Known about the structure:
The chain has about 300 residues and is α/β, with parallel strands linked by helices. It has 2 domains: about 5-80 and about 195-290, HAD superfamily/HAD-like (Rossmann fold, 3-Layer(aba) Sandwich), CATH 3.40.50.1000; about 85-190, Hypothetical Protein, Haloacid Dehalogenase-like Hydrolase, Chain: A, domain 2, CATH 3.30.1240. It has helices at about 25-35, 85-100, 120-125, 160-170, 200-210, 225-230, 245-250, 260-270, 285-290; strands spanning about 5-10, 40-45, 65, 70-75, 80, 105, 110-115, 135, 150-155, 175, 185-190, 215-220, 235-240, 250-255. Strand 7, helix 3 and strand 8 form a beta-alpha-beta unit. Helix 1 packs parallel to helix 8 (about 260-270). The longest helix is centred in the N-terminal third of the chain and has 14 residues, at about 85-100.
Amino acid sequence: MQYKLLVSDFDNTLVPFGEPRPRPAVVKAVKKLQAAGVKFALSTGRAYPCVHREQLGGIRPDYIVTCNGACVTDSKGTVVAEHPLTNEEMYALVDFCEDYNYPLQFNFRDACYVYCEYEALRNNYAKMGSSGLTCVDGEDQDRHLIDMPHSAFAAVPPEHVADFMAKYGHLNLNWMQVGAKNADGYGFYDIVRGGMDKGVGLTDLCARLDLPLEETVAAGDSANDLSMLRTAGLGVCMANGTEDAKAAADRVIGDVREDGLAALIEELWFDGPKAEPSGRDLGSAWAQIESAGGQ
Length: 295
């Protein structure tokens, strides 16, 4: 089958964790793919304002699936599909995080606004250096009067997520932990509407393109990629991926630090050799150090 769309996760799939941009071989392969008429989409847990051109190394995605599937844009940033949070869902998150002074950020189309504990989140992002994650002060809590956010991000001790669920479980919000707990015992969570994930974002994109899912390839490495890997016609996991991602994928390809995505492109679209995995299993190590908001 000649696949017509490649969808790639960002961290540890397109770009090795800790590096500022994709490696040259991957950039070259993606551009070659697009020149051949195949669409390339980025799929990330990040909000649209945190996807920076300089971090893509010259790659210009045809589409970007952001906020774990809740918002899909075209190459110009125009929203083509979205599933924003509701007022009720926002207010529940604000009430809960204000009660405990937990940092809470809402991810809008133009920027990430911190409604609770702005200084704490700003300092955390500053420590992460070149991660590309940024925020602005939204503690006046009025940005949603213009339009609604597509997702939220919160720093909460894992044991207290159950407290939120006990009070607001009827909202069915999906809390996805990203990275490990920090030294203070806080977990970091991307929060979207119930049922929302990267698989939904891929389905929305294919509906927009009038493209059968069977003609798509999805590449990822971690827990928030599982639905996307299962939804695509061909789901592939990096050799550095987590065990659950490998189990969800149709096959495992090379390590991100060995240009595994570039090898896959050469194999599937240009009759190159099979993109074999390296055999190295770095998934557990990367999972432990992957930063909050990762993707």
